Amino acid sequence: MKLGTRIGTALLGALLGALAAPALAQDKPITIGYAIARTGPWSIGAQVTQEPNYIMWAEQVNAAGGLSVGGKKRKIELIGVDDRSNMETVVRSYEKLMASDKVDLVLPPWGTGANFAVMPLAQKHGYPMLSPTATGRKLVAMKNPYFFALLQQPDRMMDALAEFMVARKVRTAAVIHVDELFGLEQFTALEASMKAKGIQILEVKSYPIGVKDLAPVLKAIQAKNPDALIALSYPPDTFLTTGQTKAIGFNPALFYAAVGTAFPFYRDKMTAATVEGVMGLGTWNPKTSAAAKGYFDRHVARWKKEPDRWASAHAWAGLQILQKAVEKAGLDRKKIRDYIAANEFDTIIGKIRFRGSENVSTPGVVSQWQNGEFEVVWPPNLATSPALHPKPRWN
């Protein structure tokens, strides 16, 4: 009798456990892992453009009850680690997140180089990755079915710049670029577009990541008196180039810098008067749509600082796409990948559709600091303000 009681108790426990399992699965948080630079040179961009958006998105989704999976809402648990701006740490961190921790989903690291390093892992382990800070034809050419680049490709952005130069009769230019995948691809695209449009390149200089002094290079360029100075730069060198160009009194009619130019603290640190008329990579500002203004206001309310006017909105758009894909496909990562690849999405930067890994919907844009806002000035049909050209003299 006692044995029967034990068996009955065991069967009852097993039955109750089986009934409870689905409920426990529904209550279990969705784990989303990522490695991001919180320290080191990459952290300047990563902590403006990506991690604040990851955190704000998870908070907003959780405040609404969670991410909808199969009609049931489940809270998000973010698992983020500091990659210390080190490529080996990036790769090792994602290998652990995917292979050992087996997180449900991943979010991408910061920068073209880091994304390039992680792409093989995403394909190997089957994790879709929507990257807001990686751009380059080399990435797209890899035909990785799990990788989606949200930023405009270099040829689109550099064609837009060259088109503006032709429209404003800019005939000569000098170019400096960071000696990394991003800088190399941007320069290759710019060189081809400028040559096709008859713009003469008077000087080209590359420099290593972490460069501390560009004054000798800038002085040599100044002596050639180009109509335009174009710096295909990362954030630290964007600040450096701006400061040293001003310091030597070099005031080209067109001054264009790349990553970091769209950051509000670039405007604030250099001062709005200094950066008046500086051009750079951009996509949006609070004037471009009601959705963009709503995102801007939420970001300021949460972080007490503004988002950048280029890739921050791409980061949010990627999170919008991921959320929609999970709602439609559940947590089956292959189905999420297939849904992203096959559909068009409404986002805060407009409609996005991918062809392979490329966002083929978002056009190339030139933006410019004017009276404290990074205005879209090219192409004309997207402009939020007419361009200031020639650039006002350094203040």
- Spatial arrangement of strands, main beta sheet: 9-8-10-11-12-16-17
Low-pLDDT parts are: 1-16, 18-25
Structural class: alpha/beta
Mean pLDDT: 93
Radius of gyration: 24 Å
Oligomer: single chain
Instruction: Classify the helix fraction into a percent range.
Output: 40-55%
Strand portion: 15-25%
Indicate the CATH topology of the domain at 154-284 and 365-382. Answer: Rossmann fold
What would CATH call the class of the domain at 154-284 and 365-382? Answer: Alpha Beta
**Helix count from the secondary structure assignment:** 15
Total beta strands: 17
Q: Can you summarize the main beta sheet?
A: 7 strands, mixed
Q: Give the overall form.
A: globular
CATH architecture of the domain at 154-284 and 365-382: 3-Layer(aba) Sandwich
CATH superfamily annotation of the domain at 154-284 and 365-382: Response regulator
What is the first-to-last residue Cα distance?
A: 94 Å
Strand-helix topology:
Layout: H1 2-27, E1 30-36, H2 43-49, H3 51-63, E2 67-69, E3 72-74, E4 76-82, H4 87-100, E5 105-106, H5 112-125, E6 129-131, H6 137-141, E7 147-149, H7 154-167, E8 172-178, H8 181-196, E9 200-207, H9 215-224, E10 228-232, H10 235-247, E11 254-257, H11 264-270, H12 272-275, E12 279-281, H13 290-303, H14 311-329, H15 333-342, E13 344-347, E14 350-355, E15 358-359, E16 366-370, E17 373-378
Parallel strand pairs: 1-4, 1-5, 6-7, 8-9, 8-10, 10-11, 11-12
Antiparallel strand pairs: 2-3, 12-16, 13-14, 14-15, 16-17
Helix pairs in contact: 4-5, 7-8, 14-15
